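Example record

The entry below shows one chain as it appears in the dataset: sequence first, then structure tokens.
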Amino acid sequence: MVAFFLPRASDDEQAERLYDALAEFAGCEPAPPGRRVRWIVFTQDGTEWVAAVGEELRGRRTTQQLRRGELIERTEEFSSPTRVLAVYPGTPFVVVTDAQPITGTPSEWANPFTALPEQVAWFDAPGAQRP
């Protein structure tokens, strides 16, 4: 189990304040304890992405190609210097990162952005270790 935390928070009280502030920034409701998201897996443009709190966004795309009668499978790994600050449950889920306008860091991702997860792990729940 992974206890609730947010990057940049020095203690539990500050993490709660930051979680509420980031929800306000994202225009969504903060989740109650027990319903806070540790990570999600979602697909965007054929790439499976993982958005895990405290980590950079990372993705993987596997393609198959028939070459001379043989099926060739190729997997590409992607990453973004964008670090996930919080993920809020909803339909869709909302992901807040440390990219612009929160910091000066440019990103190919909007901040915040929305995603429809295929897998979800919650803080304080078994299996919350990242995929």
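Notes for this example: Helices lie at 12-26. The two ends are 13 Å apart (CA to CA).
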